[in-house]
C-alpha cells in the first residue's frame, strides 16, 4: 500500500510517499517516512485527527501536526484590531 506523509512548516513543506505492507497504521507510516518528529503534537488523516494505531488504506495522506502557537480566535482579534 502507498501512503503519503506530509509535514507542513511555516514557509516550507515536506511530503514523502512510503510503501507499506498491509495492514499498516499511522504510526507505521510516520516511522517509515523518515521525517523529523521533534515538535510534532499529533497526526491526522486527510485533516481528521488520528491516533498512531489507526489503520490506513491505500492512498491515504497522513499529516504531522504541530502545536498551535496562538489560539486562532485571538489571532483573528489581533488582526482586526490592527486594521
TrEMBL record:
It comes from the Bacteria. SUPFAM superfamilies: MoaD/ThiS. Belongs to the UPF0125 (RnfH) family. NCBIfam families: PRK01777.1. This is UPF0125 protein GCM10011394_13180. It comes from Luteimonas terricola.
